[in-house]
Write a structure and sequence with these properties.
366 residues, alpha/beta, Aspartate Aminotransferase, domain 2, Aspartate Aminotransferase, domain 1, two-stranded antiparallel ribbon, 11 strands, 12% strand
């Protein structure tokens, strides 16, 4: 059994993927070729914004957004400690300081009640993470940002395709950033990412920074980076995009089936994923809470059930962020989640038979 079955997806779309790749091989425009421009147009339309700027990775896209907003040494960016390291890593890469606030226990997203007390005169932006596949309370986050004159960067690496009150992830903040890492809901066959905005000037700065700081060849107006998205990878995403909404429906169906089977088995609060009112969830991960996680994981492994832990440590526990001065106990909700969460196999091609195997194995392990 595969945790995420990319080969099943490839088999389903093989002809379209190969046709798209072959077209790129024949025209030979491997950097910022026509497929990149086509994909940016299609993704901007899908999200409902004026601009999509693809990038070499979801990590690069976050760094590009921060640089385009002029965030650097002496600045602070408020985010969550319960996320992949790229979120805070990029803040540090531009010379700013990550400031953490705790999460909500049910959705694992940043707790809006804790954001305003963390704002200081040095705060320049808020970076909420749409963790596991659903958006946080973005209306309240935007209201707080507006009161304090702050930018909002949605780290939507796991939530592309999700909606909140009918508005799509990546299209509701100053900048939205996503990832096309292969395991993401909409993935390529390497690294990749994208940025979204309705701000024309900001879009131009992000395009320039992505391409060594210039919109014209040999004319560099900003300090930039080589953050371009490969044309071959754009071709892969274009082949998958027409099937994306159907895959999201399959993910939701599989999640509902997991919910019904697992809710009676688990006795911890928030044991199965909670979907906030007004949200849709794309289930980049199907994450539960279990007691004695290490023992449960070992028993599942013995029965051939793959699992993953997102994330076994909070970011304030990582050695690289020791100098920020946080201690164990500063973020109790995130810390407890990091010791209890366990992600089960989830992908659009997961069969009911395999899902039943997972549920049976988990019942035995518990």
């Amino acid at each position: 059994m595969q945790f995420i079955d990319l080969q099943a997806q490839y088999r389903a779309y093989r002809d379209e993927i190969q046709r798209r790749i072959q077209t790129v091989l024949e025209h030979g425009q491997f950097i910022l070729g026509p497929e990149v421009r086509e994909l940016e147009t299609e993704l901007a339309r899908y999200v409902g914004v004026r601009h999509c700027i693809t990038a070499a990775s979801g990590t690069d896209s976050l760094e590009i957004a921060l640089r385009a907003l002029g965030i650097g040494p002496g600045d602070e960016v408020i985010t969550t400690p319960f996320t992949w390291i790229s979120t805070a890593e990029t803040i540090a890469l531009v010379g700013a300081r990550p400031v953490f606030v705790d999460i909500q226990p049910d959705t694992y997203n940043i707790d809006p009640d804790l954001i305003e007390p963390a704002i200081t005169p040095r705060t320049r932006a808020l970076m909420p993470v749409s963790l596991f596949g659903q958006m946080p309370d973005i209306e309240r986050i935007n209201e707080i940002a507006a009161r304090h004159g702050l930018a909002v960067i949605e780290d939507a690496a796991q939530s592309f395709g999700a909606t909140r009150h009918g508005r799509r992830s990546c299209g509701v903040t100053t900048v939205g950033s996503t990832s096309f890492f292969p395991a993401k809901p909409l993935g390529c066959y390497g690294d990749g990412g994208a940025l979204f905005t309705n701000d024309d000037a900001l879009a131009d700065r992000m395009r320039a920074i992505r391409n060594h700081g210039g919109l014209q060849r040999h004319h560099h107006t900003l300090v930039g980076m080589n953050g371009r998205f490969d044309t071959l990878q754009a071709a892969v995403v274009l082949a998958k995009l027409p099937h994306f909404d159907e895959e999201l429906r399959n993910r939701e169906r599989i999640a509902r089936r997991y919910d019904a089977a697992l809710r009676p088995l688990l006795n911890l609060p928030h044991a199965v994923p909670a979907v906030a009112p007004g949200n849709t969830h794309v289930y980049a991960q199907y994450t539960i809470r279990v007691p004695n996680r290490d023992q449960v994981t070992a028993k599942l492994k013995q029965q051939g059930i793959p699992t993953a832990v997102y994330y076994p440590k909070c970011l304030h526990e990582q050695p690289v962020f020791r100098d920020l001065g946080y201690r164990w106990g500063d973020f109790p909700v995130a810390e407890q989640a990091s010791r209890e969460v366990l992600s089960l196999p989830m992908h659009p091609f997961l069969s009911e038979a395999d899902q039943d195997r997972v549920v049976h194995a988990l019942a035995t392990a518990l």
